[in-house]
Amino acid sequence: MAGKVLVLGANGNVGKPLVKLLLDKGESVKAASRSGNAIDGAEAVRFDYDDAATFGPAFEGVDRAYIMLAGGYVDAKGKLLPVIEAAISRNVKIVFQSVLGVDADDSIPYRQVELTIINSGVPYVILRPNWFSDNFHTYWKAGIDHGQVSVPADDGKSSFIDVRDIAASAAAALTTSNFDGKAFNLTGPEGLGYADAIALISKATGKPVTYLTLSDEAFIGLLTGVGVPEDYATFLTSIFYPVRQGWTSGVTGDVETLTGKPARSLETYIADNLATLKA
Ligand SMILES: NC(=O)c1ccc[n+]([C@@H]2O[C@H](COP(=O)([O-])OP(=O)(O)OC[C@H]3O[C@@H](n4cnc5c(N)ncnc54)[C@H](OP(=O)(O)O)[C@@H]3O)[C@@H](O)[C@H]2O)c1
Fold first, then answer.
1. Which are the contacts of 232, defined by CB distance < 8 A and separation ≥ 6?
2. How far apart are CA 42 and CA 39, in angstroms?
3. Cα-flanking dihedrals φ and ψ of residue 71, to 5°?
4. Which of 114, 131, 176, 195 lies at a CB distance of 3.0 to 4.6 Å from 211, suitable for a disulfide?
5. How many Cβ atoms from other residues are within 10 Å of residue 106's Cβ?
C-alpha cells in the first residue's frame, strides 16, 4: 500500500505498541498526539479531537487510519464523528477501536459511530476489545498497592485482553485488505473473575492483595474521591453492568484469526509486566 498510516493515540496503551509493529512492517507512520512530539521512527503530527484544524495536516498523505478515543472521555460520538467524517471525505480506510458488546444495541453511541463507518463506503475494519489486562497496572494499580482492588463486578468474569494483542490485530487489519468490511471481538483466552485475577497478581508479585466487590454508589464515591470527574465515574460504573451479567466472559478466536497467534493469557500479561505491577 502506497500511503501513510495515521495512528491516533500514538502514545497510548494500544497506540504505542501499534506504531512499533507498523514500523517493523516497513510502513510509513504518522504518530498523532496532542503535543506533536517525536516518536522514534515515525512522523510526529499534532492532533486533537477538539481542534478540527489539526485534522487536515494529520490526514495529509494518509490512506489508512487507526481511529480510537482516548480513555477519560464520555462523549464518544461528539469526539469521534468529526474525525470519522474527515477520514471518510478523504476516502481513507478506517480501522476503528470500538468496545466489546456495543453491537448489542444500535442506540449505544459507540455502535452509532460503528454504523457511520459501516455505511460510509470506505474500507473499514472494526475491532471490539474486551476489558484490557493492562488496566491492572493503570486503573487498578493504586488498589493493588493498597492491598485491595474494589470494583462493582461481583463474581462476573471477563476474558481480559493484552493491549499487545489489540495492537497486533490492528496492525494486521491496517496492512492487508483481507479483513475489510468485518468486525472482530477481541478477547483473551479465558474468562476470569476479578478475584481470580487479583489472586494471580498477588501470587506473582508477592503482594497481599484481595478483591472487594462494591455497589455502584460506593464505586462512584471511590472514584470521585480520588479526583475522577463525576460523569466519567458514572460511565465507568455503568460498564460493569455487562460484567456482572456475564456478558464479558466469552472467548473468541478473533485475535488468532487476525494475527495468526493465540491471544496472550492474563498469566503472560502478569509475567511480562511484573516489574511494573510490583513497583
Ligand atoms: N481499558 C479498557 O479496558 C478498555 C476496554 C475496551 C475498550 N476500551 C476503549 O479503548 C479506548 C482507550 O484506549 P487506550 O487505553 O489505548 O487509550 P489511552 O492510552 O487512554 O489514550 C491514547 C492517547 O490519546 C491521547 N489523547 C488524549 N486526549 C486526546 C485528545 N483530546 N485528542 C487527541 N489525542 C488525545 C493521549 O496522548 P497524548 O497525550 O500524547 O495526546 C493518550 O496517550 C477507550 O475509548 C475505551 O473505551 C478500553
1. 72, 73, 74, 223
2. 6
3. -60, 155
4. 195
5. 10
Q: Which pLDDT tens digit goes with each residue over 57-87?
A: 999 999 999 999 999 999 999 999 999 999 9
pLDDT, tens digit (0-9, with 9 covering 90-100), for 143-181: 999 999 999 999 999 999 999 999 999 999 999 999 999
Which domains are seen in the chain, by residue range?
4-129 (3.40.50.720)
Strand ranges (E), the chain: 4-7, 29-33, 43-46, 62-67, 93-97, 124-129, 148-151, 157-158, 182-186, 192-193, 210-213
Q: Cα–Cα–Cα angle for 84, 95, 59, nearest 5°?
A: 50
Largest Cα–Cα distance of the chain, in whole Å?
Answer: 53
Whether 71 lines ligand 1, by a CB cut-off of 6 Å, is yes
- List the beta bridge partners of residue 4: 62
- Contact between 67 and 170 under an 8 Å Cβ cutoff? The reply is no
Q: Which residues of the chain have pLDDT under 50?
A: none
**Ligand 1 close to Cβ of residue 234 (< 6 A):** no
* 202 Cβ contact partners less than 8 Å away, ≥ 6 residues apart: 208, 209, 210
Output the CA 96–ligand 1 centroid distance in Å: 13
Q: Look at ligand 1, atom 44, and give the residue with the nearest C-alpha.
A: 71
Please choose from 13, 54, 83, 239 the residue to mutate so as to test ligand 1's pocket, defined by most ligand atoms within 8 A of CB. Answer: 13
